[in-house]
Amino acid sequence: MFGSSQYRRRRLELTCPFCGNEQSEPSLAISSICRACGEHFKMENGVVLPPGGVRVSALSPVEEVNPHEAQLPTRRIVVAGLRG
Q1: Which domain holds residue 15?
Q2: At 42, which helix (H) or strand (E)?
Q3: Is residue 33 assigned to a domain?
Q4: CA separation (Å) from 56 to 19, 53, 60, 75?
Q5: What is the pTM of this model?
Q6: In the 8-state DSSP scheme, what is residue 70?
Q7: Digits of tens for pLDDT over the chain (84 positions)?
Q8: At 48, phi and psi to the nearest 5?
Q9: How many domains does the chain have?
Q10: Region for 49 from its dihedrals, namely left if φ exceeds 0, alpha if ψ lies in -120 to 50, beta otherwise
Q11: Whose CA is closest to 40, among 54, 49, 65?
Q12: 81 assigned to some structural domain
């Protein structure tokens, strides 16, 4: 059944859920990597599934903190009878 040439040649046009790039994938594929942005996405029955969960980027802006303006913690934690 899956070895027949009918299934091997059938391809689908899919759109990357991250960048919108369109690419052709085999009809039996369950996931792919976008050729434009490199993101991994999953497919089910020829339909691209929306990305789930929170995405974290290492390219977020870094804020500088002035050590003189930073507030120090005002509470102390007592553990096992010791003061810290």
Answers
A1: 1-48
A2: strand 40-44
A3: yes
A4: 16, 10, 9, 31
A5: 0.53
A6: P
A7: 555 555 557 999 999 999 999 999 999 999 999 999 999 999 998 899 988 776 666 666 656 666 666 565 556 556 665 555
A8: -70, 130
A9: 1
A10: beta
A11: 49
A12: no
